[in-house]
Amino acid sequence: MDETIALVARKIKTSKRLVVFTGAGISTESGIPDYRSQGGIWDKFKPVYFDEFMSSKDARIRYWDQRLEMEKSLSKATPNVGHMSIAALHDLGLLEALITQNIDGLHEASGIPGEKIIELHGNTRRVRCMRCNRLISWQAAQEMIDAGHRAPECSCSGYFKPDTISFGQAMPVEETQRASLLASKSDVFMVVGSTLLVQPAAMMPEYAKTAGAFLVIINLSKTPYDTVCDVLIRGKAGDVLEKIVAQVMH
Ligand code: NAD
Questions:
Q1: Distance 92 CA to ligand 1 centre (A)
Q2: Nearest to residue 83, comparing CAs of 123, 127, 120, 117?
Q3: pLDDT over threshold 90, residue 12
Q4: Per-residue model confidence as pLDDT tens digits over 165-202
Q5: What CATH number does domain 33-76+122-164 carry, 3.30.930.10, 2.40.128.270, 3.30.1600.10, 3.40.50.720?
Q6: Candidate of 20, 22, 35 to mutate for ligand 1, largest count of ligand atoms within 8 Å of Cβ
Q7: pTM for the whole thing?
Q8: So what's the pLDDT on residue 246?
Q9: DSSP of 70-83, one letter per residue?
Q10: Which of 34, 83, 86 to mutate to test the pocket of ligand 1 (most atoms within 8 A of CB)?
Q11: 20 half-sphere exposure, CB direction, 13 A CA radius
């Protein structure tokens, strides 16, 4: 393990374009459950698809109820040692970009500047009107819910929805293109805490590897890329990243 950590640290130190790609697994140590692990979000809830959200008030209420349930952990969550270790790589001038599937805003809270972060699935701390595109804060939406609107609506009568990508909803074009380009130009691509099952996000390691990047995967369970990556570390994101950064700074 120590040798593997040392190898990854050396690769990062000499890299010119390090791209880190994170999934829900980096935030479990902040108390936010992931989706697919046992006890994860899909064990408790049935996902609401985008077309259901747009066509049924019952589905919108179910969606917002799920979001409120998530708020119990989200409102208390702060960046953990894993997020802070990636921020440390940024501070050392070693991070080209961070691509995340997460919607919790914890990377920005760790101090990495917003322009270095690509949120492929949006951010649940803001809320968007599905008709006029107006953005409001989570707090403003919460006030409407507290006032009895279980599925809040905009003054234009459009439906408010957390600014995240639901199943069946189109991916953001600009973010997806930027992420694909960064992945295919990276020389070290490090995946942290993702099953790498959700498309098109899961294509990013493929772009990186095909272009010749050194591919590192840090994850507690299996991914489809385990046999093609250069280094596979089965460990907790926080512990592993902390050790890697310590070696980089050594
Ligand atoms: P996922 O739930 O499919 O997979 C998470 C992976 O992380 C699993 O393979 C698990 O074994 C691993 N893991 C869990 N804790 C870990 C830890 N401490 N260290 C290392 N690995 C750990 O999540 P995904 O691949 O990101 O994709 C699911 C979708 O879920 C994404 O689209 C994302 O938008 C959404 N999501 C986001 C959050 C969040 O923002 N925090 C939470 C849940 C789901």
A1: 26
A2: 117
A3: yes
A4: 999 999 999 999 999 999 999 999 999 999 999 888 78
A5: 3.30.1600.10
A6: 35
A7: 0.94
A8: 97
A9: HHHHHTT----HHH
A10: 34
A11: 27
Q: Could you please report the per-residue DSSP string of 169-205? A: SPPPHHHHHHHHHHHHH-SEEEEES--S-STTGGGHH
Identify the CATH number of the domain defined by range 1-32+79-121+171-250: 3.40.50.1220
**Using CA atoms, how far apart are residues 159 and 171, in angstroms rounded to an integer?**
19
Give the pocket of ligand 1 (CB within 6 Å).
23-25, 27-29, 32, 34-37, 40-41, 101-104, 121, 193-195, 197-198, 219-221, 236-237
Note the pLDDT tens digit of each residue in 27-61.
999 999 887 666 666 667 788 999 999 999 999 99
What tokens does 13 get?
Answer: 């130190």
Tell which atom from ligand 1 comes closest to the C-alpha of 120: 34
CA distance 177 to 181: 6
pLDDT tens digit string along 46-100? 889 999 999 999 999 999 999 998 898 899 999 999 999 999 999 999 999 999 9
> How far is CA 187 from its chain centroid?
21
Domain range list for the chain = 1-32+79-121+171-250, 33-76+122-164
Between the alpha carbon of residue 159 and those of residues 1, 128, 136, 164, 248, the distances in Å are: 50, 8, 12, 14, 47
